[in-house]
């Protein structure tokens, strides 16, 4: 197990390097000039005149190192990554690592809440549908799952806001200080994942109940609850756990939309603002953090397999 874990950690480095190269090149081939975006408006809100603008742009490019060749800029970016600073924001001149560290807990809290929502709803509807395939419970559950998979996440968020915050006035939309303010964003984020988990659980549970060992357990007179919890669900959980690991990475990227719709703090909303402002260091740091979180989540899921199925061993 330790050898496998170390091997996976080593393979994280090429993945993050590939992500950094891809993001760096994509940002630098965009037609937008980050410095011109910064100078569109002055502090007084007036558009600056052409006189002196070129000199100011040249000075800023020299100070930020944007006048150097791409390979030099990329080398400086890699050095910033290795030293942990991730560079400085063009807009605020703050270290990107400090900005991400301040916003990351909000995003992780939202992602974990969305994951919990996806697991609870997905397993609940999936088990109900799998226990009675072909029944009205099965049809209604799979209909809701199809809607959850097909509906855009921003539309789900707006519909939940309209229904629970505007029409019924049950839950708040803004704020981060209470658990109630987290319900709507978490449900919005978790519904697509819940739909996928429900369909997978239903399919695997219905197939598992046709296996011979379930028939044998029933012949022994075991209660249905024991058959479900001790015999059926452990066989269903392995594929579900794989989807859960993948869904956590998707939830981290989905926070970009949810944090924007609900005006919540977090690295997702910060990444959107950085893209709109062409703040390259922040965008690069945001992409690296998301990629690293995705890789770590998949590693945790792989290691969790041995807890669910003792037959699995990593040599």
> What share of the residues lie within helices?
over 70%
CATH H-tier superfamily of the domain at 106-308:
MetI-like
Shape: globular
Q: What is the strand tally?
A: 0
Distance between the termini: 6 Å
Features:
mainly alpha; 315 residues; single chain
SSE diagram, text form:
Blueprint: H1 2-28, H2 34-38, H3 53-64, H4 70-83, H5 96-131, H6 136-150, H7 153-167, H8 180-208, H9 212-219, H10 224-261, H11 267-276, H12 280-308
Structural features, described:
The chain has 315 residues and is an all-alpha fold. It has a domain at 106-308: MetI-like fold (Orthogonal Bundle), CATH 1.10.3720.10. It contains twelve helices and no strands. It has helices spanning 2-28, 34-38, 53-64, 70-83, 96-131, 136-150, 153-167, 180-208, 212-219, 224-261, 267-276, 280-308. Helix 5 (96-131) packs antiparallel against helix 10 (224-261) and helix 10 (224-261) packs antiparallel against helix 12. The termini are close together.
């Amino acid at each position: 197990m330790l050898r496998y874990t170390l091997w996976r950690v080593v393979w994280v480095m090429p993945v993050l390097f590939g992500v950094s190269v891809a993001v760096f090149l994509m940002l630098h081939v965009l037609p937008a000039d980050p410095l011109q975006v910064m100078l569109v408006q002055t502090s007084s809100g007036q558009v600056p005149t052409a006189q002196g603008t070129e000199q100011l742009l040249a000075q800023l490019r020299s100070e930020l190192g944007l006048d150097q060749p791409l390979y030099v800029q990329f080398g400086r970016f890699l050095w910033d990554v290795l030293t942990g600073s991730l560079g400085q924001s063009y807009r605020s001149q703050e270290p990107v690592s400090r900005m991400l560290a301040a916003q990351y807990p909000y995003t992780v809290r939202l992602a974990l809440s969305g994951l919990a929502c996806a697991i609870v709803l997905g397993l609940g509807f999936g088990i109900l549908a799998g226990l009675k395939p072909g029944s009205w419970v099965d049809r209604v559950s799979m209909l809701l799952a199809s809607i959850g998979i097909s509906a855009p996440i921003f539309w789900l968020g707006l519909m939940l806001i309209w229904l629970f915050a505007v029409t019924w006035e049950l839950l708040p939309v803004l704020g981060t200080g209470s658990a109630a303010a987290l319900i709507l964003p978490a449900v919005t984020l978790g519904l697509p994942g819940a739909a996928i988990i429900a369909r997978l659980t239903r399919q695997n549970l219905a197939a598992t109940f046709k296996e011979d060992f379930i028939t044998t357990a029933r012949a022994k007179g075991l209660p249905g609850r024991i058959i479900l919890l001790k015999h059926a669900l452990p066989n269903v959980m392995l594929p579900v756990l794989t989807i859960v690991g993948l869904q956590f990475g998707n939830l981290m990227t989905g926070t970009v939309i949810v944090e924007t719709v609900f005006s919540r703090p977090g690295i997702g909303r910060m990444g959107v603002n950085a893209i709109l402002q062409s703040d390259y260091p922040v965008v690069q740091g945001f992409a690296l953090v998301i990629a690293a979180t995705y890789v770590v989540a998949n590693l945790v899921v792989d290691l969790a397999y041995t807890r669910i199925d003792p037959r699995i061993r990593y040599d």
